[in-house]
Here is the input.
Amino acid sequence: MSISLNYSPVVDQAVSTTLTGLPPSAYSALIVNLHATVENYARLSSIAGKAECAAVLKADSYGLGAVPIGLRLQESGCRTFFVAYIDEGIQLRQAFIQHNIEVDIFVLNGLLPGLESTFTDYNLIPTLTDLDQVSRWQEYAKTVGRKLPASLHIDTGMARTGLPGKEIQSLLDSQLLSGIDIKLILSQMVYSHGEDPVYSAFQRQRFESALRQLPKAPASLSKSGAIFLGADYHYQMVRPGIGLHGINPTTDQENPLLPVVSLWAKVYQVQDVVCGQTIGYSQTFQVKSPMKIATITLGYADGYPWTLANKGYVYFGDYQAPIVGRISMDLMTVDVTHIPESLVHNGAWAQIIGQEMTIDKIAQAAGTVPYEVLLGLGKRFQRIYT
Here is the structure.
């Protein structure tokens, strides 16, 4: 089995040196700091206490690369991984096979018909979310003549996926769990952190009720934000995902995690504009006094929110450069009037995402959630893992 790893690791602690070392054709760069990812995993593990800390790497680890991130987390002690769909699980399993690594990989989004043998071929654990899936997995276990592992998803208030509480008794009465080795019982929290503590407590109570009825097995309720709700929500396993990448998983405190991602793009052109000129499509910005404008090689085709026209920022060193005019498909224009020429010239690098303009801040300014910003980052970047 083989897999094409879509990345070229670059090990260099100085970002400027890393950027300078890129080929001239690289007009943008997404840098993923794997050390920060590991540190975030360690912090979340510490908060989780005795509970095992797994890693959710669905959607290619939120667009940042499930294979390099999964391999690095495994080196740091992670032994359980979650993905959304079976193709993600196959890719991750193949990467671990290449390195002779044994880990558990759970596929969260159910057991689609016809995929039973694929799960066993790649040693993946399905998450069963309704009675039909449980029944089909039991029948397949009879066919292969051995108990098969699975996790069981209980709906405690999301009404999106998972067995409703009223079906648990039917599950037990029908003996559908015979022949199935339940590795984990899990549920999904409606609120990411502490937005509605009353409803979160209600979900936990429903989860407790389900656990009392079902066969004894490890349990998991908390994703990134709920880990911070306390030990009552930890059970035997926690499942951080986006928190591993430094996105603030809490709603009422400063980010306790380290930023993982920085995004850079080159200056394409610098020009002087005079009073009365307009910049960009639809003339949404009119120049009030002489300005210097830099055009940057990044736009909404790269996942930068179009809605940040005339209100977003980029950085040249410590200098903030406001976006002026519409954001185009491949380009954006920023005001660099006040920034030293040594920092702004053709081929110079501007920081689009980093310590000052975080993914959380961009999402807030764009009126969306950090998940969408992170997952929207395009495939055109030179991706670097440090």
Q: What stands out?
A: The mean pLDDT is 93.
